[in-house]
Specification:
The protein is of the alpha+beta class and about 425 residues long. The chain is built from 17 helices and 11 strands. InterPro entries: GAF, GAF-like_dom_sf.
Length: about 425
Amino acid sequence: MNPWLALTPGDDPAERIRQVGRAHERFINGAPADRMRSVVAESWARSAAWIGADSTAPIDLCDDELEAYRAAHPLARVMPLFRDLLGGLAEDGDHILAVCDAHGRLLWVEGNAGTLRGAASMNFVPGARWDEAHAGTNAPGTALAVDHALQIFATEHFSRPVQRWTCTAAPIHDPGTGRLLGAIDVTGGDHLANPHSLALVRATALAAEACLREPPRAAEGPMVTALGRDDALVTSGNIRTRLGRRHSELLILLTTHPEGRTADQLGFDLYGDDLNPVTVRAEMSRLRRILGPELLESRPYRLKRPIKTDITTMSDLLDQGRTHEALAHYPGPLLPGSDAPGIVRLRRLLDDRLRAAILTSADRRILQTWLTTPHGADDLELWEAYAALAPHDPVAGRRVAELAREYACNVPATYA
């Protein structure tokens, strides 16, 4: 039995809708989610911590902001492919083609005008936020949460306004870094709950990843990716090189010190007081063999030309006050498995800059995006900031109280 399929052969869709609907009502009233697919039961539990069963997805991006954001999004490159492979379904009047980013924001929603009007009644529109924290159990949001293609059938949706729809979605990743880019979704009636629709959407996602794997233009030069991953990835033309931990640390240190570093300085950055310049020179010799002599110079060790990194991309966005976009380009901390002092300092500086920008933005949407990420879920200070902006949100108050007790802080009377 495939746990990602909504129905098994021989199931009566109408009876299944009634069974799941009764289970949903019992769950809302405090009972466990018995006799449900585990992926749905677990999603209901996550959803219930954030929203009510009658909630509607909020609008997160609109107008010029939406246009600019999706024009720059990597998935814009594969929209012609999506329309080619799934556009026929969207044009038949019964289905909707939708594409969202990694935060569940719908970027494109296409289909027959009448079907789109029906979807708009539940805010299934471009710019709306359909991750589980904002819209409850649904195919694109849950596919992002579990990182797997799946179907969500009718009353399996957590939010009641969505329960007349059935949807199938698959996540899409950057083929070079493995970073989650978003999801492709087909939404329609109950007849969508079949193995063929799941296979088609999954195949479309794989085709998109294959398309995105095409090498960048040579003029773009090398690119280093090191956020949210323990080993840096160097992309140059059609060549992708994954570095080991020590070489990843060395390359990041050199990209952030264009003036160069001596062996002693690099030794201190890598080992602290237990520095060993001989070891550094040996590691740099190996790194030069990996990357080629056209990139590295010595005396002092430095890069022959600037190299783009995801760190500088995010820093530039923060410099420009584009906090929302900077957060969208942040998959996680810099080389999180590294304990090298120089990397730890850089990691803290970058994280502190991002947190400060989020905090000073006083933007409820930006705060909410941060708090729904693994690295923001336990951030008491930002939970308090969000709670101040959303004083009637019971989830925010409850989370502030939980974290304050966990960190042995004084719980504000408002949240106690």
